[in-house]
Amino acid sequence: MQPRTKKEPLSDRRKFILTMARGIGISAIGGFVWSAYVDELKASSCILRPPAALAEKDFLRTCIKCGLCVEACPFDTLILAKAGDNRPLGTPYFIPRNTPCYMCEDIPCVPICPTGALDKASVTFEDKLNINLADMGVAVVDAKNCIAFWGIQCDACYRACPLLGSAIKIEYTKNERTGKHAFMKPIVDSDICTGCGLCEKACVTEKASITILPREIALGKVGDYYIKGWDKADEKRLEKATSQTTTTDISKKSAIDSLNANMENFYE
Amino acid sequence: MNNVLKHYRFMLLRRLTQLSLLFLYFGANAWGWHFLQGNLSTSLVLEKIPLSDPYAVLQMFVAGSLLATNILVGAFIILVIYFIVGGRVFCSWVCPINMVTDFSAFVRNKLQINRIEEKQPSSRNIRYWVLILSLVLSFFLGVSAFEFVSPISMVHRGIVFGLGFGWAGAVIIFLFDLFVLKNGWCGHICPLGGFYSLLGRFSLIRVRHSEEKCTLCMKCKTVCPEHQVLYMVGKESIQVLSGECTNCGRCVEVCEDDALNFSIRDYLNNTQSKEEK
Questions:
Q1: Which residue intervals of chain A are DSSP H helices?
Q2: DSSP state of A225
């Protein structure tokens, strides 16, 4: 058996490499845990931002979480997300059923933003601030639980709307059940609705039947395949249209063949 | 009484600044004051002067955000201030977590937890790794990574805007410092402290040690939360040049022999002694 010799001290080079490797390894552990947590928080996209906020992704990277917009809000509408709210920590948002945005004409929350996460230009028209340009979200009516759709006369949301008559219109249709009354249904025009939430606050049902949702969640997108041929403005979209042809097995044959024999197994 | 005041003069001043800043921020949100609005990430002084956390701005830059002039100016002002008064003056004079960790260190000392394990196993360089990691993550996640988890902002924002579960952040740090690692958060992990340590390497106001007056009582090393920066005590008369010194002034106030004092950095012959490493 060889006699046990005292281990030689580590060389400086080895020490350096080992320290670095250790640092990188521990950073990797921390990095994965940390990024998993941040990523989860980022994913909670169903959140209503102050007026003139950038698109959520840009908003999250630009907002410095200072709370100046929250302090500027005279109605205490805006809240700064705190631990336990399950929203990106420290970012401003509002819950319209509790306190909606009262659409101040001077929009105090926007010009005070130091980072541009609330983008003044997006609510400016001809050098003047115009809160009607805001798009915090869009009102969505639950037609099953809205009592106006039952035939009961209620126009609480319509009356509460700051853009009364344009963001929410009342549609009259005949009530076939009684034969002599009218439905007065609230219909939201998503082009005009700012998402202020005064309608949601005013709604008389136990849980609001008209609610504000972020636009990217509530609204669809037509794409280039469908154009309103009767609308000159809409036809303009054709200029930027892209075309893409999808080829499947069935489109290799002439359309008439699809009615003919030997097509039974086509979908298998 | 006079003796107590003398022994805790900087500590009392620090608590006074920490609490009055908190009070001003709180008043801005609660009662609409305009002295100091916002929070430690970005503030507005007298509705005019912007102040921004340079580390937060750096993360935003790495995350790919377009930086507005306001926060660039704000970050610059803060950099200049801490360049003058000492980088980590933020840590010991402004940061609300400092009160938590100081309290934790006090309890740890009283319970003699330090005596279970005299050698602390962890490297104080972790904070620089965390600093780098936060920038790497900011780049890949596209958001300011540390700002999303920072217990400092969580607690400070919590006090100004409503706490929620923010108190948990303070409790975690308190328990960590008490039972896991002495001066664990501020002295080992916090990347904001790491950031200001880097700035402190060049800053103007530094503690100076006079070896000829020192009687080797070592009270300074006992109270110092970053005792490694006082390596020269009793050995040579030089300034504390390490950026990790927070300029908290604890060593100055406990010294009975006037061997430690604040001074202006001598940029001309501030050769670091070899013994530091």
A1: 12-43, 56-62, 68-72, 156-160, 198-202, 215-218, 232-235
A2: S
Per run of 10 residues, the mean pLDDT along chain B (length 277 residues) is 79 91 87 84 85 91 85 91 89 91 89 76 84 90 86 87 82 88 88 91 87 86 87 84 88 86 77 49
Using the 8-state DSSP alphabet, how is residue B90 labeled? I
Among B56, B141, B161, beta carbon nearest to A39:
B141
Q: Of B198, B219, B254, which residue sits at a domain end? A: B198
- Comparing CB atoms, the residue among B141, B153, B164 nearest residue A84 is B164
List phi, psi (to 5°) of A139. -80, 135
Query: Of the candidates A116, A134, A152, which is a domain's last residue?
Result: A134
Structure pTM?
A: 0.81
Q: How confident is the model at residue A255 (pLDDT cuts 50, 70, 90)?
A: low
How far from chain centre, in Å, is Cα B34?
A: 26
Residue A186: which pLDDT band, with cuts at 50, 70 and 90?
Answer: very high
Q: Which chain A residues are within 8 Å of B32, Cβ to Cβ?
A: 71
Say which CATH number the domain at B215 has: 3.30.70
From A63, which residue of chain B is nearest by alpha-carbon distance? B60
In a domain, A16, yes or no: no
How many folded domains does chain B comprise?
A: 2
Q: Which residues of A touch B (CB under 8 A)?
A: 23, 26-27, 30-31, 34-35, 37-39, 41-42, 57-58, 60-62, 64-68, 70-71, 79-80, 82-85, 88-90, 112, 114-116
Residues of the domain holding A175: 137-218
- Among the candidates B181, B198, B215, a domain finishes at B198
ipTM over 0.85: no
CB–CB contacts below 8 A, A to B: 139
If you count DSSP H runs as helices and E runs as strands, how many of each does chain B have, helices first?
14, 5
DSSP H or E run through A240: none
Both structure tokens of B105? 């260190």
> Which residue from A35, A70, A79 is facing B141, i.e. has the nearest CB?
A35
Rounded to a whole number of angstroms, the distance from the CA of A123 to the nearest CA of chain B is 18
CATH code of residue A50 = 3.30.70
End-of-domain residue from the set A114, A134, A154: A134
Is A35 in contact with B163 (Cβ distance < 8 A)?
A: no
> A213: domain CATH number?
3.30.70.3270
Q: Do B194 and B209 belong to one domain?
A: no
* Cβ–Cβ gap B153/A71 under 8 Å: no
Q: B247: alpha, beta or left, given left = phi > 0 and alpha = psi -120 to 50?
A: left
Q: Which helix (H) or strand (E) holds B156?
A: helix B151-161
User: What domain range includes position B79?
Assistant: 2-198
Give yes or no: residues B189 and B219 share one domain: no
As for how many domains chain A has, the answer is: 2
